[in-house]
Amino acid sequence: FDRKDGKLVLAHVLFAFAALLVGGIAGLLQGLVRGGMVTLPANIGYYELLTAHGVLMALIFTTYFIIGFLYSGVSHTLGGQLRPAARKLGWTGYLVMSAGTVLGVIVILSGKASVLYTFYAPMKASPWFYVALALVVVGSWLSGFGVFCQYRRWRREHRGKLSPLFAFMAVVTLLMWQIATIGVAAEVVVQLIPWSFGWVDSVNVVLSRTLFWYFGHPLVYFWLLPAYICWYVVIPKIIGGKIFSDALARLAFILFLLFSIPVGFHHQLMEPGIGGFWKFLQVVLTFMVIIPSLMTAFSMFATFEMNGRAKGAKGLFGWLRVLPWKDVRFFAPFMGMLVFIPAGAGGIVNASNQMNAVVHNTLWVTGHFHLTVATSVALTFFGIAYWLIPTVTGRVLTPRLNRLGIIQTLVWCVGMLFMSGPMHIVGLMGSPRRTAYTTYGDHPDAILWMPYHVAMAIGGTILFAGVLLIVYNVIALMRAPKGETVYPIGEVAEAAEATPRYLERWSVWIGIAVALILFAYTIPLIDMFRGVTSPGFVTW
Ligand code: HAS
User: Cβ(61)–Cβ(19) under 8 Å?
Assistant: First the structure.
């Protein structure tokens, strides 16, 4: 692996794990407070910790890891080395994002931005918190441009050739990110910064939430797609099998590009100010975006089964026996896949209007995203770290670290079972999310919730042990014995059909994505600008 590119990748990955550690400390404390097991000193607030936890884990850990991982893959598959321009953009993006992160963390920990990771208006933070967010977004754009620049040069030099699957998927992920972040950038720059500096004295709340969720839902696929890259491209190689179908994988990613964005209203189903028809439309589109995940499940089962048959496995589930259970590079992402089955089912519940009325703003939703992003995605990222760090540092994964990795994965799953399970149950019993310890004046319902909150705190403590162990493993990987680790990229199965060229015709796909966005958002936005509540609000 190119030494200079390795440094860029490593800088991102190490920053990500540092954020995970600090965010984990905040998470542990906040979980213990909510369970009534500790009381914070008067100068530290529950919501301050909750904001630090959400921002550092959901926004910073993920974004840094993803950019590092995508850079590693495009460097490896598009010529074996980054172009100087791409590398420079990568480093500039890194520095701008890091300036934003440091500023943001200082503002949060000084108690001036306890507005949680979704920073809903009319809750107001210090203007510097929004400036920090803007820097993180702009930095990520620069990094994205670096990847596009590498990809464009490769295509110019390989006219008529299909790009490598990893690179194609990286481009889709970042295209989606660039289109989606326009929403949050507009919210922060046009609405929240002027308002928090006091240049204007009011803010259009429904508009700000809409711009946020225009970004917020594709954000979750920005987390998911790099995990899918690992599942589609890396896992087949690690298990000694083949990619089931290149065309299916690309089509799934294109469907994510089309349907990830015009669906933000499914986070706003319980909000007034948005017409019923537009909510319905975006729920239909939400059900469209479930399809590429179902295709991914199909494709993974096919890969596993083909691999099993090729190795002589018999019977309906014989393929399970030949999977490399003792290899953490497989085991951690596999546990992520397994958890994604109930996690995805929970998402489908959320997206269904009547059921959303039951679960919205309860701990059920917190349970849902701890299974999706904090288990399926996080475990996949951990699994990637066990080969990515050795690859870029010229080292090898030792059997001891591999064993520790398996233990870390199990600790994570047990912790999450204790935390996310009770969150789902107590959410259905009505316990609200984002609330510090309270018994609501010893209300009988709230008393019933308490054992579940205690179980959540125990789960959170086990998970914190998992955070410490993964951070230890990352440091140990940096000191592992020298040697060469191969970048694992799978080959496509011989029986797979050829990939149609139109899947790489970007103008068509971006055009359709923009058309869908305009269709889903134009009229509701016009209503919001004019300050009228849609007629649908009345009939809801
Ligand atoms: Fe979600 C809220 C709907 C997926 C994250 N979601 C959230 C929030 C977050 C989040 C962070 O419609 C909270 C935001 C906040 O703070 O308010 N979500 C969905 C739907 C999906 C979905 C329909 N969410 C995700 C993913 C996330 C994520 C992925 C992060 C990475 N979500 C919602 C809705 C809300 C919501 C509403 C708002 C709730 C409210 O009222 O506030 C779908 O994309 C899910 C599709 C997934 C599947 C599963 C496919 C299974 C696969 C695994 C195969 C396994 C194998 C192994 C091969 C259909 C691919 C098998 C081996 C064996 C041995 C069996």
Answer: yes
Is the whole model's pTM more than 0.90, yes or no? yes
Cα(84) to centroid of ligand 1, in Å? 38
User: How many Cβ atoms from other residues are within 10 Å of residue 322's Cβ?
Assistant: 18
**CB–CB of 430/5 below 8 Å?**
no
Residues 6+ apart with CB under 8 A from 156: none
* Whether the bond into 122 is cis, omega within 30 of 0: yes
Burial environment of residue 42 by CB neighbours within 10 A (0 to 12, 13 to 18, 19 or more): exposed
Q: Per-residue pLDDT tens for 375-414?
A: 999 999 999 999 999 999 999 999 999 999 999 999 999 9
Residues 6+ apart with CB under 8 A from 410: none
DSSP state of 108: H
Q: Are the CB atoms for 407 and 328 separated by under 8 Å?
A: no
For residues 296 and 233, the answer to whether their CB atoms sit within 8 Å is no
Name the residue of 123, 267, 288, 339 to mutate for ligand 1: max ligand atoms within 8 A of Cβ: 267
User: What ipTM was estimated for this complex?
Assistant: 0.98
Radius of gyration of the chain (CA): 23
